[in-house]
Amino acid sequence: MTKETNGLIKMCGLWKNEDKNGNEYFSGNYTYGTKLLIYTNSFKEKPNDPDYIMYIAKQDKPKDKKAF
Q1: CA-to-CA distance for 28 and 59, rounded, in angstroms?
Q2: What is the C-alpha separation between 6 and 61, in angstroms, rounded?
């Protein structure tokens, strides 16, 4: 369920991460089975190009836990 505060609707929390090349990005769980990823726009050429690009991706399945 989403919370509404001052007209804003919370979608998800984001965590700062670093990719294998050392570039920072943000990720967070969006819905069951999906996650949001926000990267710095490394292809920015003009001042009016966006600073960040947001993607939605399938969330990795958790590894099976062995029953005792």
Answers
A1: 10
A2: 35
Q: Which amino acid is at 47?
A: P
In tens, the pLDDT along 13-51 reads 999 999 999 999 999 998 888 999 999 999 999 999 999
Q: Indicate the SS3 state at residue 19.
A: coil
Residue written as token pair 């929390």: 13
Mode of pairing for the β-strands spanning 52-58 and 34-40: antiparallel
Q: Cα angle vertex 21, ends 17, 26, to 5°?
A: 20
pLDDT at 34: 92
pTM reported for the whole predicted model = 0.70
3-class DSSP state of 21: coil
Q: Are 28 and 17 in contact (CB under 8 A)?
A: no
